[in-house]
Write a structure and sequence with these properties.
It is a single chain. This protein has about 350 residues and is an all-alpha fold. Helix 1 runs antiparallel to helix 9, helix 1 crosses helix 15 and helix 3 runs parallel beside helix 5. It contains 15 helices and no strands. Helices cover about 75% and strands about 0% of the residues. The protein has one domain. The relative contact order is 0.16. The longest helix is centred in the C-terminal third of the chain and has 40 residues.
Length: about 350
């Protein structure tokens, strides 16, 4: 029974920010046409690396849906460096994951997470620009697209906005429903069962390398990784070690690596993995230094959230109920219904 109290605490704390993040994701989907993104990332210019690193940060794509989008960009003319930068910054950060980071953690981690995503993506793009020549694309492979940008132009803004909101709360949320639910459950399990300060011993260099080894093959989206990371910090893990998990987990997994090597080459995959691990390790040292040097207390919001009355409590409860509905709906339509056939 006590576990469900802890789990409900996670839901009521994170649900308002998650729903807000998905709403912003829908708005971004409505106002940023796909063909505009393709134009920004196309060509051979080094500026495309910077654009890809910046554009990917707020875009509402998880680690599973970013692959067909990146392949579409590659086929539309985006170069290897821009494609690689997009593949890293997009799953590592997003308006939904930034929102839940602020909900469960604190402002410094909320700021450092997208900055770290940009640095990682930019560093990988630079290495790709100088060391990875263009690879030939596989022929006769159709790329799935969620919508037709030409048709979207013909619609009024109100219809575009409704389509964007529908994409965010149905398509995008269906993509992440299972893993976000698992992430929330694991976060609650860690909070309830794991003794305090048990992870203090993995904050050294060897511990950070261990987190890297765990995170590289792990399949988890940015939003789902956040409650797990928050719970680990509350049990003694340093913020720097936690940011390794937040960066490496969403950006690398074995299934994506196997698919993407056809489009950016084996050398491109090696460069991406090296860049993600190297920058994540450096950023972890920097984040720990910032928290220690400025005496920032590791007092994440999830640890300070108590049951209280008033409008804020009711907003959390209502949002939690709405979030549960969308999560259960997403799991049913994406995981259960196909198996029933």
């Amino acid at each position: 029974m006590e576990f469900f109290v802890v789990f409900w605490k996670y839901l009521t704390t994170s649900a308002p920010y998650l729903l807000f993040g998905f709403a912003i994701a829908g708005i971004l989907k409505a106002i940023i046409p796909d063909d505009l993104v393709k134009r920004w990332l196309g060509g051979k210019s080094f500026l495309s690396v910077v654009r890809a690193s910046i554009i990917g940060i707020p875009l509402p794509l998880c680690s599973c849906s970013v692959v067909p989008t990146a392949v579409s960009l590659r086929k539309a003319g985006a170069n290897n460096p821009a494609t690689s930068s997009f593949l890293i910054s997009t799953p590592e950060s997003g308006v939904d994951s930034i929102s839940i980071t602020y909900a469960l953690m604190d402002l410094p981690m909320t700021i450092m997470r997208p900055i770290a995503a940009f640095v990682t993506a930019f560093f990988a793009g630079v290495l790709q620009y100088f060391f990875n020549h263009e690879t030939e694309l596989p022929e006769n492979e159709p790329v799935k697209s969620h919508n037709c940008s030409h048709c979207m132009k013909q619609r009024r803004f109100g219809r575009k906005l409704m389509d964007g909101i529908h994409y965010a709360f149905f398509d995008l949320l269906e993509d992440v429903a299972l893993w976000l639910t698992i992430g929330l459950i694991i976060g609650g399990l860690i909070e309830f069962f794991v003794p305090a300060n048990i992870f203090v011993g993995v904050n050294g260099i060897l511990g950070k390398f261990l987190i890297l080894l765990i995170g590289v093959p792990l399949y988890i989206c940015a939003s789902a990784s956040t409650p797990i990371a928050a719970s680990l910090v509350m049990k003694g893990l340093s913020p720097g070690s936690a940011i390794i998990f937040l960066l490496v987990g969403p950006a690398t997994n074995m299934s994506n690596i196997i698919v993407l090597q056809k489009y950016i080459g084996k050398k491109g995959i090696i460069i991406n993995i090296f860049s993600i691990c190297f920058v994540a390790f450096i950023m972890s040292m920097l984040v720990d230094w910032i928290y220690m040097s400025f005496s920032i207390p590791v007092d994440f919001k999830i640890a300070r959230h108590d049951h209280h009355g008033g409008l804020e409590s009711w907003i959390g409860i209502i949002c939690a109920v709405v979030l549960i509905f969308f999560l259960l709906r997403g799991i049913y339509y994406r995981e259960i219904k196909p198996r029933l056939k």
